[in-house]
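Each record in this resource describes a single protein on a pair of labelled lines. With that in mind, the following record should read easily:

===
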Amino acid sequence: MILWIPTIALYLASAILAALEIISLAPLARTHLGKGLIAALCLLLAVSITLTASSAYWAYMGYGPSVAAPALAAAALLLASLWRLRKFLES
């Protein structure tokens, strides 16, 4: 059960980061590049929300470390990719 708490927290952080990036890219929505970036971030936001809900369900159903460990790795990978995208867009 303890592995689910950081997993859900990482997925929520990914969703928040994606939403903040969508808001910050709103001025670029009229360009082709901006539309593509916003579409990709909307997809990542949807994935983050879906995985948060599914992780909460798996934790509720009592799945153990065999499911939680790969989910934790996927959550960390998603958050790292969003963080790297944020750093790329700032430069």
Summary: The helical segments are 4-24, 32-61, 65-90. The chain has a mean pLDDT of 90. The chain has one domain: 4-90. Residues 4-90 form one domain.
